[in-house]
Amino acid sequence: MDRMKANGYVEAGFEPVKDAFEQNFNKKENGAACAIYYQGRKVVDLWGGLAEPRLNKCWEKDTLVPVFSSTKGFAALAVAVAHSKGWIDYDAKISSYWAEFGTNGKENITIRQLLAHQAGLCTLTQLQLDKISDLDTSHIAPQLADLKPEWNPGSIHAYHTWTIGWFIGEIMRRADPKGRTLGKFFHEEVAQPLHAEFFIGLPDYIPQSRLAAVQGMHSPFQLLFHLHEIPKPLLIGFLNPRSLTSRSMVDRNKLVAHENFNKREMLSIELPSGNGVGDARSMAKIYSEFATGGKALNLSKDTLIEIMKPANPPFNGWYDHVNRCEVGYSLGFWKPISGRMFGSSTHSFGHPGAGGSFCFADPDRAVGYAYVLNKIGGYMDGNPRENEVRKAFYQCITN
């Protein structure tokens, strides 16, 4: 079988990245794109495969795709911009921005604790979620203020799969002197200055024809094909409706099921934990700005130092009680830890998304990286297809 030929280009010296990207389509990739900035210049910009397999529609240069939890990284970048402007103090109590939040044992929770997934506010079972529009930050915020922590904040961490984006959105709205939603803030303060297309809340002017359709695990039958991709402890937790994993990842009406992210209604709301939409080159460009000093966004040195710091584990260690594995979190990002490294050092920061997308900054090597796809499996950061592309890139800059 002839190998699929990628569209786009790589700069001389980065041909192995293109080879690895093209090989992925022999490994059952549907459609994907990868872009990498190195030392401020775009050295990889590739795309290929099918944006909509059922219609045999090709992935084009301007195709946009939902990136699920990679959205969290961009929400965290927005918080970093607000911190740089002096509007957010990572060590401040959330209640100092949002008075109604300071009840039911949440009085002393800091923004830093929340962004490290230590706040104990990860479950969906206390929330009334009946329709897709209920997932918008503006709807859910009053309910968030009444939540009770599942544990003593700061003692452990557990992935706030869906809730963390809502908390970020409401804190940002209250901290911003203009009172903007997170999506509007990100568009005006990050995407527009960088001429990048990434949206948290897809605007009406983006035509449907530009969107890739995600193919998820819609049924138990489809899940069977992806069981090998899901770590066994996570799968066991996911299948147990009483577990912290299940109560944090699944709502009773299955509104956050993968197939719903093909609906315009889902993409148009503000769901900062999972409905971000963009193209790979924009995502890589945004992270490149944070990896190379942030001059275009006028980022402060103090902010860059903060987001580059290695993660610190909570009192009871790195074990994440939702993902059921060891993960490092800091200021809304995944951070490299032993056994779960990315980038070139613990200064790197970013976030994976469902099925294997990954976007991150590596400030030590001045890298902004994005790999995005529309075939959603069980991988987090362990997607072998994305891993091979990333490995090829780092070999190119170290040889």
Biggest sheet features: 7 strands, antiparallel
Q: Which architecture would the CATH scheme give at its second level? A: 3-Layer(aba) Sandwich
- Write down the domain tally: 1
Helix residue percentage: 25-40%
Q: State the distance separating the first and last CA atoms.
A: 31 Å
CATH superfamily: DD-peptidase/beta-lactamase superfamily
Q: Report the β-strand fraction as a percent range.
A: 15-25%
Low-pLDDT residue spans: none
Global geometry: globular
Domain Beta-lactamase-related: 21-382
Protein name: Esterase
InterPro entries: Beta-lactam-related, Beta-lactam/transpept-like, Beta-lactamase/esterase
Pfam families: Beta-lactamase
What does this structure look like?
The protein has a single domain (7-353, 371-398), classed as Beta-lactamase (3-Layer(aba) Sandwich), CATH 3.40.710. The chain has 13 helices and 14 strands. The protein has helices at 15-23, 70-84, 111-115, 137-144, 163-175, 182-194, 220-224, 232-239, 244-249, 264-268, 280-291, 301-308, 384-398, and strands at residues 7-10, 31-38, 41-52, 57-58, 65-66, 198-199, 277-278, 319-320, 325-326, 328-330, 333-335, 349-353, 357-362, 367-373. Helix 2 runs parallel beside helix 5 (163-175) and helix 4 (137-144) crosses helix 5. The radius of gyration is 20 Å and the shape is globular.
